[in-house]
Amino acid sequence: MESDQTELKRAVAERAAALVQQGMAVGLGTGSTAALLVEALIRRVRNENLHFVAVPTSERTAQQASAGGILLTDLGAHPQLDLAIDGADQIARGSLALIKGYGGALLREKIVAAAAARFVVIADDSKLADGLDKKVPVEVVRFGWQATDRRIRALGAETEMRKTSDGKPYLTDGGNFILDADFGPMPDPAATDTALRAITGVVETGLFIDMADEALLASASGVVTLTRG
User: Fold this and answer.
1) pTM of this prediction?
2) Domains of the chain, with CATH numbers?
C-alpha cells in the first residue's frame, strides 16, 4: 500500500501529465515526483496514442522515459520547449522561487526550465513555505573545489560535500561535485543566487528565481494551482 505522501505525489503527477498535448516538445524533470509524472505519461502514450517528444533532465529520467516508449530529443533539435514539468525541494509562497537539486540534476533542470515557454512545478504541499531556508545545492567543478568551497563559506554558509552511500563524492551527470550550502533563512534568495554564481568554479545553483510559472500542489483535499505573483 502506498504511503500518503506517495499518493499525493501520484495525484499531482497525473494532473501534470494531462497538460501534455499532441505534438508538444516537453522537458521532463528528475526526482521521485517527476518519476511518477513519467509513469503517467507512459500510460498516456500506450492508452491514448499520445505523441510528443521529451528532453530529459537526467540519465535516470531518460532511461525511464525511453523504456516506456516516450520519444526523446534534445535542445539542439528543439531549443524552444512548449512545456517543462519538474519537482522542487522547496517552493516559496507567492514568488514561486524554488530550491531544487536534491536529486543531483540541478544544472540540466535549470537549462531545460529556461528553454520552456511554460515551466510547471509539481509537489506535495509539504514543500510549500513562506520563504526559502533549506540547503542550497551548488554544483562546482572538481578542480580546485576546496577554494570554491572556501568562497561559498565566506558568503555565510555552512557547506557539506555531497557523497554517495559508500562515502565517495557524488558526481553529477556533468561530472561535477555538489556542495550543499546551508544559509539558513534567505531574506533575498535572488541576491544569494547572484553571489554564488559570481564565484569562479561554481557551475550552477539550485536556486530557481523567477522561473516557475505555476505550481501544482497536492494535499489531502486535492490538487491546487498556484501562480507566480
Assistant:
1) 0.94
2) 4-130+209-227 (3.40.50.1360), 136-205 (3.30.70.260)
Q: What is the pLDDT of residue 16?
A: 97
Alpha carbons 47 and 107: distance in angstroms, whole number: 33
The C-alpha atoms of residue 36 and residue 168 are separated, in whole angstroms, by: 29
State residue 121 phi and psi, 5-degree precision. Answer: -100, 140
Q: For the beta carbon of residue 186, count every other beta carbon within 10 angstroms.
A: 19
| 33: CB partners within 8 A, 6+ apart | 9, 12, 13, 87, 122, 123, 124
Task: Give the tens place of pLDDT for each residue, 141-158.
Answer: 999 999 999 999 999 999
Enclosing H/E stretch for 189: helix 189-197
Backbone angles phi, psi at 157, to 5 degrees: -100, 150
- Choose among 167, 162, 64: nearest CA to 106: 162
Which three cell numbers, joined as nine digits, stand for 150? 572556501
Contact 173/58 with Cβ under 8 angstroms?
yes
> Catalytic: 14?
no
The C-alpha angle 19, 25, 31, rounded to 5 degrees, equals 70
Neighbours of 23 (CB within 10 A): 10
Which member of 14, 109, 139, 204 is catalytic?
109
Q: How far is CA 82 from CA 28, 85, 112, 116, 126, in A?
A: 12, 10, 11, 6, 28
Are 208 and 134 in contact by the 8 Å Cβ rule? The answer is no
The b-or-e profile of 75-103 (16+ CB within 10 A means b, else e) is beebeebbbbbbbbbbbbeebbbbbbbbb
